Amino acid sequence: MADREEHRVIIVGAGLAGIAAAITLERAGIDDAIVLEKADRVGGTWRDNTYPGCGCDIPSNVYSFSFNPNPDWRSAFALQPDILDYIEETADKFDTYRKIRFRTEVTEARWDNDERRWLIDTTNGSFRSQFAIFAGGPITEPKLPDVPGIDSFEGEIFHSARWNHDLDLTGKRVAVIGTGASAVQFIPEIQPKVAQMHVLQRTASWVIPRLDAPMPGAVKTLFRKAPATQQGLRHGLDGVLRLLTLAMRHDKAARKLNIIGKSFLRAQVKDPELRKALTPTFSLGCKRLLISNDFYPALTKPNVELIPHALSSLGPRTITATDGTTREVDVIIFGTGFDVSHPPISRRIRGADGHFLSEAWSVSPEAYLGTTTTNVPNGFVLLGPNLLVYNSFLGIAEDQMRYVVDAIKKADEYGFEVFELKPEALREFNDDIQQALERTVFNHGGCASYYLDANGKNFAAWPYSTTLMRKLLSEFDLEKYDLTPIRQPAPTR
Predict the structure, then answer these.
(1) Range 156-211+237-334: architecture per CATH
(2) C-alpha distances out from residue 71 to 1, 134, 227, 424, 493, Å
(3) Alpha-carbon separation of residue 288 from 212, 337, 388 (angstroms)
(4) Positive or negative torsion for Cα 94, 98, 102, 104
(5) Beta strands in 93-168, from DSSP E residues, in sequence order
(6) Where are the domains of the chain?
């Protein structure tokens, strides 16, 4: 067997969650950790998504590391270039780059029962570790619809997450497939350039105002000189998001919020036929909330046509919707999201039973507290199943890292080398989660969202309060795991 570089902890992925993991471990005194990153730059989804208008739909002061507040956000809701700059600045400030191995893509991470270690093969060497943190993230692999003729289209075709910046859209006839979170951002940006835009909408979604504004210089100065003021704003915004999460836990409460979306739509779209096509038939919050001030106005422009039907097929130069509408186009842009129910990293994690995690997750991913699962000893998944709330993903990753750090410290304190989640703990937790989800807007808001798998099971949403999530992730609960003591060396004669 080839020599393997050994570390106590190996982190896979240098996006926001991976950077949070590396810095949190370092701050907790767990120094022997490295990060394996397939690209040549940190940033994860904020590195890969560069479409026009790309930005965050969580306020900047919440969507940032708790240990590195940024007083210099240019606006209340940060755009992609600013977020990527912030991630890189954080990695530099905390000397994290020395721990990152760029251009090192994990091909397989397998648990070896005899060695009691993770053996990780990559495109740039082999590694060995006691603990592994998988921070690949849920929004990494673009999803393209399986429609007839997709290989026969003779024009330009790409997904918004792999934007073709070499293509000049000026004067082009463009079809946009999808009206989700990415599309509502890039449609207003490209609309003035194109000759004609045809937007195919399978299902209308609720859009609410983006309460954005440039950050005044005086406010930046205040944040810099009195950091407590920015911390206070962060706590206040977090409280607002928690209230929204509370409403989403109850379908009846969420339904009362529909008036917000209806009023915004009525104010921005005067044409009754277009407004009808853009009005959702489900409760606000059932699908991901979209925030934009210029999406609706863009759809009212003379060079834009909304086709309220899904894509049916493609021809060499045409798109056809399910109602038979056919249009000639030069460019097709897919704003069809990501395959979040089948995380790519799961196809590269081989557990203690010899099977890939993707096999256990073939129908729907399951984890305990969205962090650990059976047959994956000493392994953690960041931003795993059933942790979605209307709040910052980054905050969730930091909460999970408290659980991870406590697990590693307890291994040292109590003298165990391996922990593995008990099957009954996984089953009991997920049964409770699914039962609790039954009363939420996610399950009974009247929509089919990406939160639900092919069988209608909700694998994404967290049905309880954010406070409870943070409490449960604050301490590693040993009783949920089978523990293996440190192997004693054989006596010498």
Answers:
(1) 3-Layer(bba) Sandwich (3.50)
(2) 50, 30, 8, 46, 64
(3) 19, 12, 10
(4) negative
(5) 100-101, 106-112, 117-122, 125-134, 156-159
(6) 5-140+339-485, 156-211+237-334
Beta pairing, strands 117-122 & 106-112: antiparallel
Tens of each residue's pLDDT in the chain, 493 residues: 458 999 999 999 999 999 999 999 999 999 999 999 999 999 999 999 999 999 999 999 999 999 999 999 999 999 999 999 999 999 999 999 999 999 999 999 999 999 999 999 999 999 999 999 999 987 788 888 889 999 999 999 999 999 999 999 999 999 999 999 999 999 999 999 999 999 999 999 999 999 999 999 999 999 999 999 999 999 999 998 888 878 777 777 778 889 999 999 999 999 999 999 999 999 888 888 899 999 999 999 999 999 999 999 999 999 999 999 999 999 999 999 888 888 889 999 999 999 999 999 998 899 999 999 999 999 999 999 999 887 888 999 999 999 999 999 999 999 999 999 999 999 999 999 999 999 888 888 888 888 888 888 999 999 998 899 999 999 999 999 999 999 876 565 5
| Domains 5-140+339-485 and 156-211+237-334 in one fold | yes
| Alpha-carbon Rg for the chain in angstroms | 24
Q: Classify residue 404 by its DSSP letter.
A: H
What residues contact residue 178 under an 8 Å CB cut-off, 6+ apart?
200, 201, 202, 334, 335, 336, 337
Domain 5-140+339-485 falls in which CATH fold? FAD/NAD(P)-binding domain (3.50.50)
CA distance 345 to 15: 14
C-beta separation of 77 from 294 below 8 A: no
Distance CA 381, CA 364 (A): 15
Q: Name which of 35, 135, 45 is nearest 95 in CA terms.
A: 35
Nearest to 100 by CA among 35, 39, 40, 42: 35
Side chain identity at residue 196, one-letter code: Q
Q: Which residues of 205-226 are buried (b: 16+ CB within 10 A; e: fewer)?
A: bbbbebebeebeeeebeebeee
